[in-house]
Amino acid sequence: MKKLTLALAMALAMTGLAQAKTVKVTLTAKEVDLPIDNKGTMYRAWTFDGQIPGTVVRVTEGDTVEFTLVNDKSSKNSHSVDFHAARTDLVKDFESIKPGETKTYTFNATHPGTFFYHCGSDPMIQHIARGMFGVIIVDPKDGNALPKADREYVLVQSELYPNPDNQNDMMANKWSNVMFNGGVFKYDPVHDPAATRILQAKPGERVRIHFVNAGVNEFSSFHPIAGIWDRVYPGGNPKNVMHGLQSYTVGPGDGAAFDIISPVEGANALVSHVMRQALTGAIAVLQFTKDADPKAGKGDNILVK
Ligand SMILES: [Cu+2]
């Protein structure tokens, strides 16, 4: 039996197919104060794991995800998790749990892609707008389904509603700024000299952006200024592939993977080309330099904190 398993593993390795496994994932709902710009303006956020976006979840197509939600004792509200990568019963699995409670459910990651996850508790518009969202990447089980990325980055777009308690503002779409990864101009020292972070890569490298639009209301027109998307994978699924695009629209609650390669050194700016979104904060500088940090865009560094 052992021999057979080994033979199967070797055969799978030769085909580049990953073996399905069970992955335990835990997210903790936490209501915390977080800085939402480079100056350190604090915001009463609701989060997963105390950060916006929440921890990046990464599994492989075919894996079983054994998911546990912990709603921290210090929370004042009930919370839940809706994984867009799951096919299940929303009543049974996406239900809200009270502060101090824990809930576990299991799903099979049947479809590869760049998926949204978010709190679905009532009022959902407020739970998402305050920061309860993140990304689950389901890598294709065929390791050769996508061209190998030299670096990867996660970017999540969302709107900032200055008063987190005012649900009417959210319903009326009265946002003040649009953010990438929970910060206004977080990766843009050009528009905000207080910004200390950028994305980086070397010329000629294939950079893959796992992009999710958390909304809650706005469509994004994701565009690389001074670059061209080499490939865009709607939904992040390798079966959906488009070539040579300048912009691609990602609606609220959707995701896509974007590949870019620069032939030259210099800066690109990844923006939502909806100008009111870009000019209020939805810009991330991607610097192409031969001196790019070898650790940037790899492993845990795909989410630049
Ligand atoms: Cu919530």
Automatic annotation (TrEMBL):
<dbReference type="GO" id="GO:0050421">
    <property type="term" value="F:nitrite reductase (NO-forming) activity"/>
</dbReference>
<feature type="binding site" description="type 1 copper site">
    <location>
        <position position="84"/>
    </location>
    <ligand>
        <name>Cu cation</name>
    </ligand>
</feature>
<comment type="pathway">
    <text>Nitrogen metabolism; nitrate reduction (denitrification); dinitrogen from nitrate: step 2/4.</text>
</comment>
<keyword id="KW-0186">Copper</keyword>
<feature type="domain" description="Plastocyanin-like">
    <location>
        <begin position="41"/>
        <end position="141"/>
    </location>
</feature>
<feature type="binding site" description="type 1 copper site">
    <location>
        <position position="118"/>
    </location>
    <ligand>
        <name>Cu cation</name>
    </ligand>
</feature>
<feature type="binding site" description="type 1 copper site">
    <location>
        <position position="127"/>
    </location>
    <ligand>
        <name>Cu cation</name>
    </ligand>
</feature>
<keyword id="KW-0285">Flavoprotein</keyword>
<feature type="binding site" description="type 1 copper site">
    <location>
        <position position="132"/>
    </location>
    <ligand>
        <name>Cu cation</name>
    </ligand>
</feature>
<dbReference type="InterPro" id="IPR001287">
    <property type="entry name" value="NO2-reductase_Cu"/>
</dbReference>
<feature type="binding site" description="type 1 copper site">
    <location>
        <position position="79"/>
    </location>
    <ligand>
        <name>Cu cation</name>
    </ligand>
</feature>
<feature type="domain" description="Plastocyanin-like">
    <location>
        <begin position="155"/>
        <end position="222"/>
    </location>
</feature>
<protein>
    <recommendedName>
        <fullName>Copper-containing nitrite reductase</fullName>
        <ecNumber>1.7.2.1</ecNumber>
    </recommendedName>
</protein>
<feature type="binding site" description="type 1 copper site">
    <location>
        <position position="273"/>
    </location>
    <ligand>
        <name>Cu cation</name>
    </ligand>
</feature>
<keyword id="KW-0732">Signal</keyword>
<keyword id="KW-0479">Metal-binding</keyword>
<feature type="binding site" description="type 1 copper site">
    <location>
        <position position="119"/>
    </location>
    <ligand>
        <name>Cu cation</name>
    </ligand>
</feature>
<keyword id="KW-0574">Periplasm</keyword>
<comment type="similarity">
    <text>Belongs to the multicopper oxidase family.</text>
</comment>
<dbReference type="Pfam" id="PF00394">
    <property type="entry name" value="Cu-oxidase"/>
</dbReference>
<dbReference type="InterPro" id="IPR001117">
    <property type="entry name" value="Cu-oxidase_2nd"/>
</dbReference>
<dbReference type="InterPro" id="IPR008972">
    <property type="entry name" value="Cupredoxin"/>
</dbReference>
<dbReference type="Pfam" id="PF07732">
    <property type="entry name" value="Cu-oxidase_3"/>
</dbReference>
<dbReference type="GO" id="GO:0042597">
    <property type="term" value="C:periplasmic space"/>
</dbReference>
<dbReference type="GO" id="GO:0005507">
    <property type="term" value="F:copper ion binding"/>
</dbReference>
<dbReference type="InterPro" id="IPR011707">
    <property type="entry name" value="Cu-oxidase-like_N"/>
</dbReference>
<keyword id="KW-0560">Oxidoreductase</keyword>
<keyword id="KW-0677">Repeat</keyword>
<dbReference type="GO" id="GO:0042128">
    <property type="term" value="P:nitrate assimilation"/>
</dbReference>
<keyword id="KW-0534">Nitrate assimilation</keyword>
<comment type="subunit">
    <text>Homotrimer.</text>
</comment>
<dbReference type="InterPro" id="IPR045087">
    <property type="entry name" value="Cu-oxidase_fam"/>
</dbReference>
<feature type="signal peptide">
    <location>
        <begin position="1"/>
        <end position="20"/>
    </location>
</feature>
<keyword id="KW-0274">FAD</keyword>
